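Per reviewer request, we include the raw input and output of the structure prediction for the construct analysed in the revised manuscript.
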Amino acid sequence: MTDTITTAPGINPPSATAHPAAVLDDAHIGDIQGAFGTISLDDTAPRQGLSAKLKTLLAIVGPGLIVMVGDNDAGAFSTYGQAGQNYGTHLLWTLLLLVPVLYVNQEMVLRLGAVTGVGHARLILERFGKFWGAFSVIDLFLLNALTLVTEFIGVTLAAGYLGLPKVLSVILAAAIIIASAFTGSFRRFERVAVSLCIGSLLLVPVYFMVHPKTSQMAHDFVVPGMPGGSGQLATVMLVIISIVGTTVAPWQLFFQQSYVIDKRITPRFMKYEKADLWIGIAIVVIGAAAMMGLTAAAFAGTDGFGQFSDAAGVAKGIEAHAGKLAGVLFAIALLDASIIGAFAVSLSTAYAIGDVFGIKHSLHRGIGGAKGFYAVYAGLVVAAAAIVLLASDHTLGLLTQGVQVLAGVLLPSASVFLLLLCNDKQVLGPWANGPRTNAFTSAVVGVLVTLSVILTASVLFPDISSGAILDIMAGCGVAGVLVAGFSFTRRRTATGEDLAAASDRGRPADRAGRDNWRMPPLETLAQPVMSTGRKVGMGALRTYLLISMILVVIKLVQTALGH
C-alpha cells in the first residue's frame, strides 16, 4: 500500500498513484513523527497483530485528542461553570446530544485533511471564490482573536486564585505558548500539547472530592429539561447556545484539517485517526460533564447558587465545599486548559493565513523556514496577552461570555461550507460523503439555525413564552422539511447535464482504491457550478447570521448594564 504524494524540491517520493497530490507545503511530506512514535514514509506494510496496530495508533494519536481537549478551554470552564452554578445539572443532556455532532463534523475535516493535503481555508477560497473565502477567513480570524483573549483571561483567573502575580503569570504563559511552537520540531510541540491534554484529567480527582450525586447526573444526562420558568427562558437559551458554541467551535474545523496535514497523515491511516478522534471526544465530554456536576454540587443549597461570576468564583465555591486542595487542583486544571486552548486557537489562525496567502506553514520548519507563519502565531499570542493586561475586568468578563455565544451563532455557516466540500467529488473522490452523513449533517445545520432563531427571538422579545419558542421550533422544522423535499424533488427531476454541472451530486462516489486516492492539484480541478438556489440560500444564511450576531452583541451589552 503506497501513499500518494507530490514531488517537491529536494524530495524524491518512493512512488505515486495515477496523479500527484495537491500538498501545498513540501514540509507536509515525509515520516509521521508523533509524540509517541514514528511511521516512516516508506513503511507501507499492513498492520497485523494487536501490537503493531497499537504502535501505529500511538504514533497517529494527536490531532483528534488535541482539538477536542483544546475545546475544554478557559471559555468552556466559564460556560460549564455557569451552567452548573446557575442551573445545577439540568443542562447535562446538551452534552449527550453534541457527541454525534462533534464526531461527524470533525470526521469530515479529518477526511478533507488526509485526502486533500490542503487546509480548510484554502479549499473554501479555491472552491467557492474570494467572496465566500474572505467571509470565512475573516470570521475565523476575528473569532479566534477574541477566543485567544479569553484563554489569557483564564490564566489570570487561575493565577489570581493561586495567589500568583497577574502580570508575571500572563507573560510566563505567553512565553510557554510561543516557545513550545518555536522549536522547529513537530514532535516536540506535540509532546508538550499531549502532556497538557493529560493534565486536563486533574478534573477527575476534583470530581470525586466534590462528589456530585451520580444518580441525578445520570438522569439529567439522558433526560432533557429546561430549568426555570418562562421568565428565564431567554437567559437559559443563551447558556445552551454558549454550550454549543464552546463544544463545537468553528476554529476546530480549521485546526484539525491543517494539523492532520502537518502531521503527514494520509488516507491509509484513516481508521487510526478516527480512533484518536473518539478518544478526544470521550475526554472532552467527561471533562465537561465533570465541570457541570462538580460545580452544581459545590453550590447547591448555598447563597452562591444562581450567582455565577467567573471560573475563579467556581474555584472558591469548590474550596468551601470540598477543601483547599480541590480548589487548587481546579485552578491548575483551568490554567492547563487555558494554555492548550491558546496553542490550538493560535495555530488554527496561523495555519489558515498560511494557506490563504501561500506562506510556508509547518511546525516541521524552523523559524527561518517559515517566518510569516511563526510571526502570525507569536503576534496573536502577544496581542491577546497585552489586551488582557490592559483591559478592565468588567470588559473581559463580558468578552468571555460573548465569544462562546458568537461561536454558536457562526457555526451553522462553517458547517454549510464543510458539507459542501465533503460532497465535492473532485475534492474527495471516493471519500465523498454518503447519503446518511449528508442527511445527518443537514439536520445538524437545521438545529443550529433553529437555536440561532430562538436566540434572536429571545433578544427581540425578552418575555417570550415557552409556547412561542415551541412554535419557532415547529416553524423551523416545517421549513427544514420543505427545503429537504424541494432538494429531493429537484434531484429526481434534474437532467443528466444538470447533474454533471453540479459535480455529480446525485451519483454515489466510487469507493474502489480509496486508501491510495489523493486530491489532484487544485489548479487541475474544474470549478464547481453554484446553482442560483444555492447562492440565494447561502446569501440568506449569511445575512441572517450577521443580524443575529448584532442582536447577540446587543443582548450582551444589556446584560452587562444590568437591563
